[in-house]
């Protein structure tokens, strides 16, 4: 294994269909773990690259609040990484950044970090300057105990156009009774797909497990299909799935085959 204490900040440019891949060694004897422990600095800063893939790294002991920071360029992919999040975000993106893929990663929140924690937080700038095309597939999210009132979400988006969330596993194994959602998509546009996810939640008595809320008039459709909800889900006050101010204003909902 090798441990890096400085931020990885690639500046290369790939092209459509040909990503530049930064990956740990694959040959026998050179295929150990690559670990980033960057303290108060980003683990990775993606602001000056396009068609870039970060693959197979471990990120831990990072206090910056944004382990992988995406603030520029386009077409970024984070794949097969492990991110141990001590507060705010494992992956944070802000801006009008075309196409982000987050695939096959493991996210785990530390206990009692006393900070808002979104294991992934992706946001645009305004209704006229949206984050366009987010794909979140086959990841594992573990949200642990948190102090009240900082909120804890597995995935949060704001002002995103065309969001695909499929085949993920969300484990909300915390003691919070409010401000904790596995998936929270706010002010969405275009199409939203939430498909084939496994969602375990422990008693979110005052928060919906999944929320697609305040969708913009430019929302095209919302599809929530084939998801499995498991655990002590208390729906006496709020539903497991909350579509408030989205469907009743704009319609176009497909909700089926969820258990």
Give a topology summary.
Blueprint: E1 2-4, E2 20-23, E3 34-36, E4 44-46, E5 50-55, E6 58-59, E7 66-70, E8 74-79, E9 82-85, E10 88-94, E11 100-103, E12 106-109, E13 117-123, E14 131-137, E15 140-143, E16 152-158, E17 160-166, E18 169-172, E19 180-186, E20 189-195, E21 198-201, E22 210-213, E23 219-225, E24 228-230, E25 241-242, H1 247-250, E26 253-256
Parallel strand pairs: 1-3, 2-5, 3-6, 4-7, 5-8, 6-9, 7-10, 8-11, 9-12, 10-13, 11-14, 12-15, 13-16, 14-17, 15-18, 16-19, 17-20, 18-21, 19-22, 20-23, 21-24, 22-25, 23-26
Characterization of the model:
- The chain has 259 residues and is an all-beta fold.
- Helix content is 2%, strand content 48%.
- It is built from one helix and 26 strands.
- The chain has one helix spanning 247-250, and strands at residues 2-4, 20-23, 34-36, 44-46, 50-55, 58-59, 66-70, 74-79, 82-85, 88-94, 100-103, 106-109, 117-123, 131-137, 140-143, 152-158, 160-166, 169-172, 180-186, 189-195, 198-201, 210-213, 219-225, 228-230, 241-242, 253-256.
- The strands form three sheets. The chain has a nine-stranded parallel sheet, with no helix packed on it. A nine-stranded parallel sheet has the order 2-5-8-11-14-17-20-23-26, with no helix packed on it.
- The longest helix has 4 residues, at 247-250.
- The protein is globular and about 50 Å long.
- The termini are far apart.
